[in-house]
## 1
Amino acid sequence: MQSLWTQGYAKLPQLLKPAECRELRALYQDPQLFRSRIDMKRYRFGQGEYQYFAYPLPRRIEELRTQLYESLVPVARQWMTVLKLSAEFPDQHAEFIEACHAQGQTRPTPLMLHYQAGDYNCLHQDLYGAVFFPFQVVICLSEPRVEFTGGELLLVEQQPRAQSIGRVIALEQGDGAVITTRYRPAEGARGHYRTNIKHGVSAIHSGERYTLGIIFHDAE
């Protein structure tokens, strides 16, 4: 997880098996599992579409959300400490969701994205209210070079009083990437400071790509 500190992301190789990827992306065709569908072009978010899951979440997605949150809590606390921020993260994800709901953030945020040739996702941050977790996880459900080409995960880091840094993250099927939701702590001569990070997806050249997004806070 050291690259979370230095670059704002960390890869999780083979987080899911190919069979799990196929099973999860098949969920996209069942409208009863989702609370809303977004046409990205309509809102000028890019091109393509995604759907937010409804509660109750599918079992495997609930498991991933819970397990990944609990593995990332220690780093999240370290980040808050070095940045001298007051946010607190309980050990259990269910308790964190209770804190979201207490602030009126009650809508689930795990989502699945579907891209076809020519589609892309503009740089953005997934913030849905005052309460947010500093990490989220992106999981590639399709097989690159076989089912699609292009479609790399992009991160752009805005440094104070300096040029921005761009990073390209290529994921294999089943790979996950932990990315920062908003910023990361960078170490300077006077201690740590925040650098702002946005993420997006480069254009799909051919085929279609499914992606699972695990966001740990709920939305207003």
## 2
Amino acid sequence: MVAGPRLARVPFARWGVFVVAVAVVACTSGNGDDGAGDRSSSPSSPSASSTVPVDRPRGGRVRVGVWGEPDVAAPTLGGAAVRALVLPQLFVAGPDGRWSPSLVEPGTDRLASDRRSARFRLRRGAVWSDGSAIDADDLRGSADGRFVAGVDGPAADGTVTVRFTQPLPGWQRLWSGVDSVTAPGEDVWGGPFVVASYTPGLEVVLRRNERWEGGPRPFLDEVRLVLVPDYRTGLQLLERAELDVLAPLATTIRTEDLREMAGVTVDVARRSGWWVGLFLDAKRLDGDRRKAVVATVDREPFVGTLLRGEADVLDGFGGRDDRTWDGVGAGDAGALKGRTVGLVGELEEPNTYLLQRSMQKRARAAGGQLELRNAEADRVEGWLARGEYDAAVAVAYDGPSVCWLCRWGGLDEGLARAADGGDRGAVERLEQRLRDDALLLPLWRPRAVVGARPRVGGVRANGYGLSPAWNAWEWYLTD
């Protein structure tokens, strides 16, 4: 998984604000708002909880398999997946790629016509687990200074205004997605669940937050996020009913495997913010060697054969018609002759090793060597964040509203900020630089697939969710 520059902030007495850099992404917000006029920035997208029946049965425990270490304090995507369930977020990303209000009072958010500010009201009665109010001071204390110039209010009518450092049509990602509102102290929570316990390398136990006011309180008493990094092991545990919910990463006939499993229901969402890419470090590899490494990858047959129906070749991030990387890949790897290049990979991603072996074969044919260095995803995230790699095959995540500056600000801050501001021309130019300088080769975008035991109701696939438990507050037991 790809981690970004702000992940190092983990204060002892306060949970830090974490932003996972999401590499190359679309400039659009994904919510259908063009930013023109003073209006709701999340039209036609109800609160994630607003349509949930309140008469569902209550009680029970559910076990969910996750492939990233579920450490709430970790500066990783696995940690962000837990924080999204136990800390407040302004919005929640739904399967349709739209932001739905969570801490924000539905229908109150408005983006200014110049896209330089937004106003909204926080939900009435929103409190932390210790009973203290969640308010504008909490937003001020956990604002991303790269984009937030200030937080004003609340006004007499309860309205809070957030001023931006630049036009920001995708402002909903602030305090949302991989980011959350920082808690005022240790063991204080503000999401639908609270952390009851955490066992490193095994699981985190979440229990219902009786004070949560982001919608109907969770129906379940307890949700356990169990670390299951191996695909086959996850399937076996689900089949034996030792897991209730599992969303494996893309691999050959993953969906078919789940559908053939007795007593398991399957949901699929083709839209997704997850993707896998080849990242190359300009500080450790010159341009010729970066291009030679890219030339060892034959994306089309690899994805079309091994991941047919499970993922799609990714040619760009500006929408379905973006073909920036179309045709980039297998070619002349001669610049690797007599050279050894380190190639990092994540153990949890099922296809990484197969891809690496195919790349090694092409490198050897050119007289070069790719030396593999694979590890757990959370370690790889750290290597990428610190630049401790030559080339890396890694899983990345984009929310509906994504951040160019977080990942590519060091390449061209002005261009990245313009892309975040909605300039499509800037997106095209930035993508072309990434392609032409061989800093990135997008590989594939998987479809979101989740399998669940029928005893658990309310489970939905969401390619923009950080884990299969993204809406666990809606789940209930049917037996």
## 3
Amino acid sequence: MQADDVRALRQSAVATATVGVLCAVVGGVVSGGKGVLGAVVAILVVSLFFAISTMAVTRAARVSPQFMMIAAIGTYTAKILALAVLSSLFKDTTLFNGRVFGVTAIVCVLMWCAGQIRAFVTARTLIVEPSSAHGSAGEP
């Protein structure tokens, strides 16, 4: 994993955790322990989903841009399917507050995306690779 990718992952995770803790506090005030638990589950699900896909896409980028896109679409599809399974499993649960879970998940997803955008906008990544000092054999 390159330094820019690690920095983006760290910034997004910290921002998401911060907002998630605030959501957990609000969830605790609104619906007690079940609200806190719903927020914590949402934070874990969102963080795990995004961390896995960031690592998979970063590793695939080492192979080729085409493989990176396949990894991005594949992890996105897997996350949607896993979220559908989780939603159906916890549809009627009384273990945690579902509304707090949903709101926290949405807020955490938006914060993760904002963290990723900020990290890559502020990164000093070269768009064009500089040519070597010696040039290639066919260039003047």
